[in-house]
Design brief:
Length: 191
């Protein structure tokens, strides 16, 4: 394993059934995620899965939280940890021993034990992928940068409902704090 990968981890964020199902033909649009997971595993880079889930009845959700109160009101995708909607999508199914981190807000760090896992494994470099670019990826990138992690965003392993927002983030905003690469370019650089 190359030295540059010793302290890196791939985060696969919110690629769970309730969220992935919002993208038509999700099998094909999830191929970059599959390729990123395969590349990480083949180069001994830990893969950490992050999902959004709440307790039964959504006690963590404030009515003042515009995003999550709508989810709670609608019972969106039955988002408790055991519900189908909260499970990692089968196209990127975790292997035994690969952590699944449950978060309570947009950022992968908020309400989760992600940082404990990263610090325990001496990880200082994060490779980010997720659904959505303007949600979990943006929020996690900002928080991770503030926590002094080195960052790479896999532009084609990020999805957003708004292609223009995705473009602006990956071309103009993210490069200020992270290296932005396609999965293919990132995987090639690992060899």
């Amino acid at each position: 394993m190359p030295n540059s990968n010793q302290h890196a981890a791939l985060l696969v964020m919110d690629v769970q059934n309730a969220i992935a199902s919002r993208f038509s033909g999700n099998g094909e649009v999830l191929l970059p995620f599959q390729k990123a997971v395969e590349a990480a595993r083949s180069h001994h880079i830990p893969v950490i899965f992050v999902r959004l889930a709440f307790r039964e009845g959504f006690p963590e959700v404030s009515p003042r939280n515009k995003t999550f109160s709508k989810i709670a009101e609608a019972g969106w995708g039955a988002m408790t940890p055991t519900d189908f909607g909260a499970q990692i999508h089968e196209s990127v199914e975790p292997l035994p021993g690969e952590p699944i981190v449950t978060k309570l807000r947009v950022s992968a760090f908020t309400g989760s034990d992600l940082e404990v896992i990263l610090r325990g494994r001496q990880i200082d470099t994060l490779i980010l992928s997720g659904i959505s670019t303007s949600g979990v990826v943006l929020s996690t990138l900002r928080e991770a940068a503030d926590r002094d992690f080195a960052l790479t965003v896999l532009s084609d392993a990020c999805l957003d409902n708004d292609p223009e927002v995705h473009r602006v983030l990956t071309e103009k905003i993210f490069p200020r704090q992270a290296e932005v690469l396609t999965v293919e370019a990132w995987a090639a650089a690992l060899d």
